[in-house]
Structures are given as structure tokens and as C-alpha cells.
């Protein structure tokens, strides 16, 4: 692609504006400790201290630098679509500061520079040293691509060279890897932008080394004299280093780490043609998306370890479903599409983008969920085992990984629309955008218009510089059972999809028109019968949007609402509500409490009363009065 | 009552035999560290060390002595009904040993004597010092009543005198109380058996002092220099000392502590006529039994703090529902019946006795549940937040409070059958027994025969020494909607129950016969609509017995079984099964997994297949092959 598509979409442009106008400025204030009442970040101050420009102690998490990196990466994507000289100046100054904080040998990490200068590379398992490097590399690549400025890229190449001199198979080098995967995918990006194979090989080294026996983390612990069993059930499943990656068949452990690793594995399988790695990616994809994923594309069923638990264990109220994990799932899905175009990857990517990722932020971009539950009873959040579930979004987190991660995802949303392969353009996502492709050394202009996700009509104009033959493949979403397609007004059969895509291989002429109508009824979704939590329950979904019930619309005790099996599901677009959403209404029944009496248990028939159920998009919940929320509702 | 009724009941006699033949001997071995493979108790060794008869360190919990006390109490009850000279000799020797371990001033606690001799009474909040004393007092009272031997009673009177010299309102005395209530109810027993009002007053002092401000635990912590906030959400709700007891309206905190305290409050309200205390007892009773109790009479919805959570929060899979807590509920109920005869107390007592208490032990008396969940998916017990839920009973616990507590309850089960008040005999429970009452200085012999809980027919013969007028009041259980009553073959109307009891006030002659037939169909029980967990679900109950589904009878994935609303519930008594139980069968429907495919979510109608559901008594679950278990089943 010639450049990132220009997103003109109503739905996503609003989010991008929020990120540009609210999230990025707010987070900059937060990183600089200028937000009253919010937990101090100290992240910029740490860099100033490391750069010798301030005195003081390091404060914050060992991975505090990564917040700055993710912010910078979000800024880069935002500048690419919305130039802003003042913001760019702020970023340039920050990059100068990072340059000053870089050590003689290229090393750059404020925690170790300020707090433990003699302990570099001694605790890869816990200390996020390469993780932070990875995020800063991603920022450097994005900033270079957005602005053409090499300074941060050069800084990070120097650091990557430093890392390469320390890690590797050669004698005297550390045969290890980070406890929190991230640098692996970052090095692939660095390789892509620099063309330097050293970075690709270093990424491959980290992936190949992972999980080998004797275990690196054991050896490393022994050197440190640390004899405690690892806190996560004594198992390195936590960091997916329990087995060599090619032998892994089930998603385990910390879900964000898993996503970043699987993304890197997909990258490497694609770049190196490693079939075993590809097979592992597909096996793991199948496990995550068919056994361990919530309907919102939330992942991580367990708070302990922010982790996967086991197949079909998907409790709606105990889940972790971290915003960052769904974001990581998007990263992985995009790379799986490179490896093999298949709508099952794009379906999940779309599910995550419209549900489990953006639910992490309120509509104003001012408050954030770290945990995205599917069922909330605010009172129950006082339980010790549900204390991770916050009933309302929070201002800024102590561990503030999610807000900047979401900012960089939204700011780069255009990257996820298309996949290119030789002279094929795959349209994965439907959103208003203008894109320019290079095909056979010619420009191809594409302009997509749609009111997605509220309406399934998509118009695309295709304008190659001159008439030529190439393929545009359109994804028919998994949720869509009826679609109509026209090219220049002529109906095209869509029976013969290949892996969920309709291939339009033809000679395209300037100003050709594609019209795709995806029928978008409200569906009653059922979960696999092995998901014990959801037996007898249904979730409403329209197009890619998962719906939920909120107390503010339905009054308290949402589980006592029963949706009759054949109740008509009415929809209307409410422009005033939640930034403009389609609302679902249905005549439901509700358990009557008023004449039950005080007995806790009795042999009685339940009585019901009619209730007009109102469902709103899950991603937009908790933007009005706080209260209960429920995705999976009882059905009768 | 002249003495403890002689229990002849088929159901309970089997349990009493198990306690006598298995539990008591096994626990003695365990207390003496002679059980291979079990966690070392060290409890007897601690006493030997304290007595100067052995050298070594104290080992175990600070409350290790209480295991010995509870064992001794169980022995006493067992000896009362089943004399056993050898066991009595063992007990006498243990009592001699305890005498040797008692200090000059009467003090008796092996932890402090051996490990922290200079720290007596410095950390009442955490160290269970008075708690252990309480249990030993209960043992002493029971042993005296069973054997007539005063030695342990005298030992414990001396210790109680020592405690009385240390605690009280007078200057120089500690104005405090124990973090774990227990001594309060024990001192009432000591008062009852000795007639010494000092013990009643000391109990009242502890109850009255609790929760006063400035808070004793704060003052005590300050003296120790302990400035950490209390670990339980920083709240003394944990030990029900957050408010003066008369102001408490909701059950909070550690549920066993709560039960022991409420039991003592009921005792004191009864003995002292304190109306405010009585009102508090009734308010708390209403809260516990109508808002915070499982259908099994399990209590404690939260593992953290082994505690109550809040009204209607009754998760079936996350609950704590400790065996000891249900036992405590029985203690409290019995005392509420003294305070005010009302079948609502006896109903709960019965519910606890036939469900949530005895579920804590396998049928052989060899393995024990500490936590009694209402829904078990064994795989899910690997989750960190469900690790307290064991899918199978354990041999002996590190913290072994439940097994000896259950032993003492079962061995004294006869104590719970009747409540006496002047010339009134209240029959609370139906179980085969022979009892002798003193009424107007004459003996009244009662002989109850029944196959309860499997059949609701109860025959009672009443034989006063000579004809006289008095009242026998029979409880009509809350679960019974049709009962028939005959006295000497003549039908007696039972419309006019008073607080759930039919009062038979008449002249009773030798060998009068009462026949009570309690209709005992299988009921589909519903939970209050505010119990979100159980909406759309039903539990089966026959008489006092709550039923459950087990994997061994129904194959895996129990939540996918739907009991049709009008399915016939067939019962049959299976003499071979689980020691002889009534089994419930019904034609149910089950979600079909086989043709669902691999998709985790889809817009599809569920398919069902017929399944003959088998339900067995909850208390007897996990006595065959381990697996899933479910009380609240889906209904359609």
C-alpha cells in the first residue's frame, strides 16, 4: 500500500478524533504527572533522570517506559492522518530526551539505567527489559513512517544492535528471551522498515529459544540465587515458555503475552516460510477462537495471571478479558491474514474491533476499562474474587497499559482494512476510507463508503490509473447469511467464496463501482453447548456488534429478564443515544419479585410480567448512569 | 430432660456408628501424628511439651488445641450413648495430660505456654486464645455430663477463673474479647453445669464489650506497635466487632465466628431476658436465613475471609459454605428455639442437619469437605479463584476444624430433637429415639419411630409414669403441605398450628400413641427472584433432603440438562445405593453437543435429546466416582 488509508468512516473517525483530541493530550499530561487526582506516572521524569537532566529516583513499574512508547506510537499514527505541528514538536522533543537517556553502548531503559545499572539482563523473566525495547522499536518504526524522521529509528537500531550483541547462540551471549513477549514482533517491523536481516534473525532467535530445556528462566534464577518456585502455579505457562513454541497447541498463561507472541510467530512464519510455525499458529488460533474466546472477542478467563484458563471455561462475571488482550488479538489476526487470507481471521478481528477493544474506553476517551466483563452486578464487585472487575471505567490506571494501547490501535485503524498480496487486494473490513494501492507499478485509488456497522450497504469506487487486470477480494462476514454484490450495477454471484472472500478478478477501469449489501438482521447467538455458563442463554448481535442490557434502560436485576424464543427484535437508529447507535427492543418477560415474599426458597411457580427489553451495543455500555450490565440473557 | 435421648434412628444411628467406629479413632491417630500420608497435627505432642513430658517446639496453628478439645467433646457425647471403657481410659489419660499442661495460675494453652510464654493476652484479635479455652470448656462440660467425672471440668473452671481475673470492667483488667467468638457460648454452658453466675457474667461481658469504640483491637494493636490495616478490607466486620452486637442487623464477616456469636447472644438473651439482644438475634436470623443462606443451609458466599458477602449473593460455584459454618447454624438454631419456639428455626436446623453439615463427610467417615459447593466442575477447581473448592473430599486438613466439629455434632444429634419449656415438650426433629423427660417431677417416656427422611410417617408412644396433663407440640415442617395427625387412632385437626407447631395439650396416659404422617412429595424449589444465580433454575427437594445431579449418574456437562416444567418426578428407595437413599428420576432434555460443530458462537437453534435424569441426595454426593455435581438445574 502506498500509505495508510485515509479513514473517512463515521464510526471510526469519531474514535480517531477522540484519540487525537482527548486521549493523546490527556495521556501526555498523565505521563508528565500533570493530571490532578490521577495516579502519578513519573514516566517522563524517569527519562529525564536517566538522561541526566533531573535528579531523583525511578518511580513506577519496571515497564513504565512502555507507556511512553505506546503514546509515541499513537502520536505517530495520528500525525500520519492528522498533521499537527505542535504535537510533532512535543514528540520530537521527547525523542531528543530519549536520545539523551540512551547509554553509550546503545542501551535504553530508564529502570535499569536509574535504579539497577548493574543488573541489566539478569532477570529477563520478570523485568520487561526487552518488552520495553520492543514497544520503543514499534514507536520508532511508526514515527519514521509517519514523519520520515529517522532520529528515533536510529536510536532504536542502535539499541537493537546492542541487544543483538548480548543475545544469541554464539558463545558468551545470553541464550534467553523476555518473560513478556513483544520485542519479537517489533524486530520484524524493524526489519521491514530497515531491510536489515539481523533484526529478523534476532526475532527468530527469541522465538526459537523459547521453552527449550534446560529452561532459561531456571538457569537465570539459579544465577540470581532465587530458589522460589515461580508464582504462577510454579509454571512457565504464564509466559508461554513451558514448551518450544512449535509444540504449543493450547493457549495458556498471560493472554497479552500470548497474543504478542502468536503475532510474532505469524510474522516469522510468513517471512521465513516456516511451515511448523504456521501450523502452530493455526492450531493456537483454533484453540483461542473456538474454545477460549468470549463473544466480545475478549480473552483471558482468569484474573490470576491475567490468563487463559482452559477450554470452554468462559465465566461472564469472573473474566479478565483485558482490553490489551483483545488489542493483541487484532494484531495477531492481521498477521494471520498475511499468512493465509481467510475470513475467519477477519471475522475475529472485526469482532474484537467493534466489541472487546473499544469497550475499554468511554465515548469521550476520558475513562478506561482494563477488564471488560460480560456481566456486571456492581454490588458483587465488592467481592474479593471479583475486585478486578470495575463497575465503571477508571481515570488512569496504576498499570496504565490499556489506554495507550487502545490509542495506538484506533489511531492506526486504517491499517486493518486491507491485506495486499501481489496483485490482489483483500477487503477485510468495511469502513469509509480512501486508499491508494500500488499494483503493477500503477496507482489504484479505492474509495469506500458505508454507514457500517449500522447498515450493511457498502459502496466502493475503484480507480486504477489505467485499466488493468487484478483482483479485489471482498470478505463476506461470518455473521452475514445473505449478501448481494454488484459491479457497475451488474449483479455478481457470491456463491463461490474462497475462504470467505468473493474474488473479483477482472479488468478494472477508472471509476468502477462496487456495491455490496450485507444483510444485517439481529441474530440470537448461542454459545457452544460446552460453555456451561451460557446454556439456556442467548446474546443479541447485529452485524459485528454484540449487544448488552444495561440497568439504566431495564432497571435492576437483569438476569431475571427472559427473552421469549420468538419475540420480535425491533431495531431503530437513535442518533442522540451513545453517539448514535442502533437500539434493539423486544417484548420480554420478567420474573416478578414483588409478590414473592421474603422466603429465600419455596416450592412455587414463578410469575412473570411483561417487560420491554432495551439492548444497546456492548462497546458503549457504562456511558450513562452506572449499573448492571449483561450480555448473555436468559431465553425461554 | 433427664438425659440425652437414645437415638435409634436408622439414618442417624449409622452416622453415629461411623463417628464412633471411624472418625473418633481416626482422629485420635491423626492428633497423635500416626496417620501415614496425612498432614502432621502435632496437637497431642504440643500438650506433652507444655506439660513438660516432652521436649520440642510447638507446631501447627495457634488454635491447634481446639482440635483436641473438639475431639474430646465428641468422645464425651459418644460415651454418653455408647459406653466404651477403653476410649474413656484414653480420654482420661488425655485429661491428665491437660492437667499437667495447666499452669500454676490456671492458664492452659499450649501455643502460648510453649512458644510465647510472655505474650499471653497481647493479640486477642488474631491468636484464638479465648477461642481455644472455649472449646476446651465445651469438652469439659460434655465430659462431665457423659461420665460424671469432674477432673476436666475443674481444670477448666480454674482456667475460666484465671480468665475472669484478667478480663472485665474493673480497673487493671483487659476490656477486650477474642477475635474468634466461641468462649461466649462455652461460658454459658459452664454456668449451666456449675450454676456459677460468674461464668454467665463473663460471657455477657465479652458480648457487651464487642464492637465498642474506641475499638479494642485498635488499642491492642497500638500496644503491639502493629500499624498495618487489618487484612480483611481493613474492617473488623470479619470478626463481627465492627458494631456493638445489639446494633448489628446484617450477617457479615467470617461465618463460623458469626454463628458462634449469634448462638451465645441467643443464650444470653434467653438467660438474662435481654430484649434488645433477642431483637438483634431475630434480625440477624432473618438476614442469614432469608438473604444469605444456600438451599443446603450452607453459609458463607465468599472464600476471602470464609465470609458472608451480601444479600442474595449466592454463587453456587464460588461459595465457601464451610462445614463448620452450617454446624454453627445448627447451634444457633437450637438456641433460638429456646428463646422462642418457632418452626422456622427448626426448619433451618433440619435443613442444615440433612444437607450442608453431613455433606462435609463421606459415608465412611474417612474423608471430609471443608467447603461444600452447590456446583462443581472439577476442571474449574484448577482456577485460582476456585482453588478452595475441592472436587473430592480430603483425608485430613491442615486446618482440621471441620472433621472434629462434625464428629461432635453427630455424636450429640439427640440433643437437637426436643426443646423443653416448663410442662411443654416440643418435637423439633423426627428421628427414631427413646427419651425420658421430667415433667412435674414425674418421668415421661417417649419413643419415636420413623424411617425419616425417606418416609414422613412418624409414630410416637408417650408414657408418663402416671396420667397427667401436659403439652406435646409437634413441628409441622415448612416443606410439608399436607399432614395427618392421630392420637390413639383419633384424627386431630392440625389447622391451628402456633408458629409451625401443633400443640397437643391434654391428659396423657401411659402408652398413648401419636401418629403423624407428613406428606413428602418431591418439590421443585425456586429461589427468591433476587438470587441472580438461580433464575430459571430449580432444585429438587424431598422432605428435608436437597438433591443433586452427579456426573456418575448423568455423564458430563450437567448444566446442559433441562428439566421440563411438568416432567414427572419418580422416586424409589434404593437400599444398595449410598447407604440406602431415595433416588429421583425424571425424563429431561439435554442440549445436543454432537452436531453443533466447532464454532464457539453461532446463530442457531439448540437441539435437545432425551435424557433420564437421576438425582441423589446432596449430602451423599462424591461417594462414588468423582466428577461434576449440580444442585440448581436448568428448567424449561
TrEMBL record, chains A, B:
Non-reducing end beta-L-arabinofuranosidase-like GH127 middle domain location is 425-520
The record places domain Non-reducing end beta-L-arabinofuranosidase-like GH127 C-terminal at: 522-634
Q: Sorted alphabetically, which keywords does the UniProt record give? A: Hydrolase
Q: Which GO terms describe its biological process?
A: carbohydrate metabolic process
Domain Non-reducing end beta-L-arabinofuranosidase-like GH127 catalytic, first and last residues per copy: 6-414
Q: Which domain of life is it from?
A: Bacteria
Gene Ontology MF: a single term: hydrolase activity
Coiled-coil residues are none
- Keyword RNA-binding belongs to the record: no
Gene3D superfamilies referenced in this protein's UniProt entry, alphabetically? 1.50.10.20
Q: Which SUPFAM superfamilies match?
A: Six-hairpin glycosidases
Q: Which PANTHER family match?
A: DUF1680 DOMAIN PROTEIN (AFU_ORTHOLOGUE AFUA_1G08910) (PTHR43465)
Q: What is this protein called?
A: Glycoside hydrolase family 127 protein
The organism is Lederbergia citrisecunda
Amino acid at each position: 500500500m502506498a500509505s495508510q488509508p485515509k479513514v473517512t468512516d463515521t464510526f471510526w473517525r469519531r474514535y480517531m478524533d477522540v484519540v487525537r483530541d482527548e486521549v493523546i493530550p490527556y495521556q501526555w499530561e498523565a505521563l508528565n504527572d500533570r493530571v490532578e487526582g490521577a495516579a502519578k506516572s513519573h514516566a517522563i521524569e524517569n527519562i529525564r533522570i536517566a538522561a541526566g537532566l533531573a535528579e531523583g529516583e525511578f518511580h513506577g513499574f519496571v515497564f513504565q517506559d512502555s507507556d511512553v512508547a505506546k503514546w509515541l506510537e499513537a502520536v505517530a499514527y495520528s500525525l500520519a492522518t492528522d498533521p499537527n505541528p505542535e504535537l510533532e514538536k512535543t514528540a520530537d522533543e521527547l525523542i531528543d530526551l530519549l536520545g539523551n537517556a540512551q547509554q553509550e553502548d546503545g542501551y535504553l531503559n530508564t529502570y535499569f539505567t536509574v535504579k539497577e545499572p548493574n543488573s541489566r539482563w539478569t532477570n529477563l523473566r520478570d523485568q520487561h527489559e526487552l518488552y520495553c525495547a520492543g514497544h520503543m522499536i514499534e514507536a520508532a518504526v511508526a514515527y519514521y513512517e509517519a514523519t520520515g524522521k529517522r532520529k528515533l529509528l536510529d536510536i532504536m537500531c542502535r539499541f537493537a544492535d546492542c541487544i543483538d550483541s548480548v543475545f544469541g547462540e554464539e558463545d558468551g551471549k545470553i541464550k534467553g528471551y523476555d518473560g513478556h513477549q513483544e520485542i519479537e514482533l517489533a524486530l520484524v517491523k524493524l526489519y521491514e522498515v530497515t531491510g536489515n536481516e539481523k533484526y529478523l534473525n534476532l526475532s527468530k532467535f527469541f522465538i526459537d529459544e523459547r521453552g527449550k530445556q534446560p529452561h532459561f528462566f531456571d538457569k537465570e534464577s539459579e544465577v540470581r540465587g532465587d530458589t522460589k518456585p515461580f508464582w504462577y502455579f510454579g509454571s512457565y505457562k504464564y509466559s508461554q515458555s513451558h514448551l518450544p513454541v512449535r509444540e504449543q497447541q493450547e493457549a495458556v498463561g498471560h493472554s497479552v503475552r500470548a497474543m504478542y507472541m502468536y503475532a510474532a510467530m505469524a510474522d516469522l512464519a510468513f517471512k521465513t516460510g516456516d511451515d511448523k510455525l504456521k501450523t502452530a499458529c493455526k492450531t493456537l488460533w483454533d484453540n483461542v477462537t473456538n474454545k477460549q474466546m468470549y463473544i466480545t472477542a475478549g480473552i483471558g478467563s482468569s484474573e490470576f495471571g491475567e490468563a487463559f484458563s482452559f477450554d470452554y471455561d468462559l465465566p461472564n462475571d469472573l473474566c479478565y478479558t483485558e482490553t490489551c488482550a483483545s488489542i493483541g488479538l487484532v494484531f495477531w489476526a492481521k498477521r494471520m491474514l498475511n499468512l493465509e487470507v481467510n475470513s475467519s481471521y477477519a471475522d475475529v478481528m472485526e469482532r474484537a474491533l467493534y466489541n472487546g477493544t473499544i469497550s475499554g474506553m468511554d465515548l469521550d476517551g476520558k475513562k478506561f476499562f482494563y477488564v471488560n466483563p460480560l456481566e456486571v452486578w456492581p454490588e458483587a464487585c465488592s467481592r474479593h474474587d471479583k475486585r478486578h472487575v470495575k463497575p465503571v471505567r477508571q481515570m488512569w490506571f496504576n498499570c496504565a497499559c490499556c489506554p495507550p494501547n487502545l490509542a495506538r490501535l484506533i489511531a492506526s485503524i486504517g491499517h486493518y482494512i486491507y491485506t495486499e498480496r501481489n496483485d490482489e487486494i483483500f477487503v477485510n473490513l468495511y469502513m469509509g476510507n480512501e486508499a491508494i494501492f500500488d499494483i503493477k507499478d500503477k496507482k489504484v485509488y479505492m474509495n469506500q463508503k458505508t454507514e457500517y456497522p449500522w447498515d450493511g450497504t457498502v459502496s466502493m469506487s475503484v480507480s486504477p490509473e489505467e485499466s488493468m487486470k487484478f483482483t479485489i477480494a471482498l470478505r463476506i462476514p461470518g455473521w452475514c447469511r445473505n449478501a448481494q454484490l454488484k459491479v457497475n450495477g451488474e449483479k455478481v454471484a457470491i456463491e463461490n467464496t474462497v475462504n470467505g472472500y468473493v474474488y473479483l478478478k477482472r479488468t478494472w477501469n477508472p471509476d468502477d463501482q462496487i456495491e455490496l449489501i450485507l444483510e444485517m438482521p439481529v441474530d440470537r447467538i448461542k454459545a457452544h453447548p460446552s460453555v456451561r455458563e451460557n446454556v439456556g442463554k442467548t446474546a443479541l448481535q447485529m452485524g459485528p456488534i454484540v449487544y448488552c442490557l444495561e440497568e439504566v434502560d431495564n432497571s435492576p436485576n437483569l438476569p431475571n429478564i427472559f427473552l421469549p424464543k420468538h419475540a420480535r427484535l425491533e431495531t431503530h437508529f437513535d442518533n442522540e443515544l451513545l453517539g448514535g447507535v442502533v437500539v434493539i427492543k423486544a417484548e420480554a418477560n420478567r420474573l416478578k419479585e414483588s409478590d414473592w415474599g421474603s422466603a429465600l426458597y419455596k416450592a412455587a411457580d414463578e410469575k412473570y410480567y411483561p417487560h420491554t427489553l432495551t439492548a444497546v451495543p456492548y462497546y458503549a455500555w457504562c456511558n450513562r448512569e452506572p449499573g448492571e450490565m449483561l450480555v448473555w440473557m436468559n431465553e425461554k
